[in-house]
Specification:
The protein is an alpha+beta fold. It has eight helices and three strands.
Length: about 160
Amino acid sequence: MLKRSHNQVHGTVASSGGPVQALQAANESNLMKLIQRAQQLDQLDQTLRQILPPALAKECRLANISQEKLVYSVSNPVWKSKLRLYGDALLSAAGAAGFRVQALTIKVTPPDSVPLSPTTGKPLTQAVRDSLRATAHSVEDPQLREQLLKLASLP
């Protein structure tokens, strides 16, 4: 069976200009405005971070400019309080960069959390436990045997 790449299936052949083609496609589909907006926010974010102490700059991110407001995202309320102290400086710097902003909004958005304890799955069936025990008795490695027996004893 002949395998085709995603681009071949849709009638285009990948060339060495992959990123250029992606930008051209984005421009053709009116995504260019969105890309330019994201780049503009990123550039302003980098400019405004220079005002902040390094520890604070690591913990906050310019999320948007909306209705004459700078909207920041921070990971917890402590950073929100610290960032608020730099509000006037941030607004002034954004104004100097050509943005008409009059207010600062800071939203606490905790980072995605990883569960602290592993999630419990379905209990092992008797057939699975028997299979683990049989496998444990057939291996020569004592450590592997011990681990298999331990698994077989789980509920």
